[in-house]
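From: lab user (bench 3)
To: helpdesk
Subject: output format question, protein + zinc ion

Hello, I'm new to running complex predictions and I'm not sure whether the block I got back is the full result or only part of it. Here's what I submitted:
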Amino acid sequence: MRPSLALVLATALAVTTLLTATEAAAGVKVVTTVPSLAALARDVGGDRVELTALVLPTQDAHFVDAKPSLVLRLNKADLLIAVGADLEVGWLPALQTQARNPRILSSGAGYLECAGHVRLRDQPSGPVDRSQGDVHPTGNPHYLFDPRAAADCARAIAAALARVDPRNAATYRANLDRFLTRLDAARTRWEKRLAPYRGAPVITYHKSLTYLVDWLGLVEVATLEPKPGIPPTARHVAHVIRTGKERGVKVVLQEAYYPDKTGSLVAQRLGARVVRIPGGADVGRGQSYLAHLDELVDRLAEGFR
Ligand SMILES: [Zn+2]
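Helpdesk reply: Thanks, we reran it on our side. This is the complete output you should expect:
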């Protein structure tokens, strides 16, 4: 029996619809380590990318559980974007090996380490050893609080997306240009708003706000950690309080995922405020990089007020 023309046409139509649906769903699978990188990849990739961040904004990216669910996400990824400069050295290499996906190995075309595209601060001048604490030996990886560094990352992300998905290179380029224009305008607005606090002395928790402090012209006079990655000790905290008094510190700045106790104690002794800043963009709730920095700037402005 020959199929009727109507059936042939209906089948052809169904196949076409199926192909279109598959094509539309087949975005580039991008996995980032920290959520702020996912937010940047969203701005540059637009609706061409499917995004997953391995770290939550409430998590400290130095220490992440290498759970099997994270391995699965990496197994299917077209592009893995990391902060680099050894921020994720304690957990990411194991995941990359377990994922059985050569694309996202450090040597693969689907691997991007943004640190290679940013001017890193705190590069040790001599050899690094354990006596200095958990120093990041290739430079300070906490650059994502600085919109100037975020612009460098966005450029690197656009180039990496064009590499793994050349057909949409022009789209990524256009998205990047649009994002950089908006970021530039926002940066001027943020700088203007916080300009009255230039030169203000602050105490931070970890050496993770160096770029933020530098961008806004604040002065970091002490960290609550005696050495990077080493929790505050009573002796060191006494020293921080002395320094804070001498320098007239009115704000203790720390990411929300660090323990509260020491910062609150120090602030109380100084008559200062603790400003808890978000660890990264809340991409799970759709927060963009610009909205994340808006929130950060709001908290700083309230803290210095
Ligand atoms: Zn660190």
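A quick orientation on your result: The chain has two domains: 26-122+132-189, 195-304. Let us know if anything else is unclear.
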